[in-house]
Amino acid sequence: MNRRRAALACALALTTGLALAGCSSDSGSGGEPELKVVGAFMPQPVSDMAAGFLVVQNSGGTADRLTSVTSPLSDDVTIHETKNQKMREVSSFEVPANGELDLERGGSHIMFMKLKQKPKQGEKVSVELHFEKADPITVDLPVKETTHNPKKQ
Ligand SMILES: [Cu+2]
């Protein structure tokens, strides 16, 4: 969208003979974050807490940040990192340009506290991911068995 406008500005600059810095924004630097969520799941919770895992891929040339997560399952959803096997809340996670943010078992995750109900394997939990720059993304986390770990299959 902005990229198209930038391209148009570049074309105009060329035809009018103006030199315009930033005309190379189509080549991968600059532009907007382009986000996609893959591999989302929630292990079936065994208490009134649950964790969510997913990967946010960014095919754009600009980094973004995951700043918060909301869900109908809980009014207390935070994002956690794990350091030395202890988890702690963070205010945001970077989604690098042309890279990805991995929320995976044993590492960073979405934390759901005080669950309003306990979702079971086969059900889905809707979450909305909020970013610093990109529009929010709504994604369904399929509930998997408690020990599910796609990286270790
Ligand atoms: Cu946690």
TrEMBL record:
Organism, scientific name: Streptomyces sindenensis
Keyword rRNA-binding included in the entry's annotation: no
InterPro entries xref list: LpqE-like, Lxx211020-like, PCuAC_sf
UniProt keywords, alphabetically: Signal
PROSITE patterns, alphabetized: PROKAR_LIPOPROTEIN
Keyword Signal among record annotations: yes
Protein origin, superkingdom: Bacteria
One Pfam family named in its UniProt record: PCuAC
Name used for this protein in its record: Copper chaperone PCu(A)C
Region forming the signal peptide: 1-21
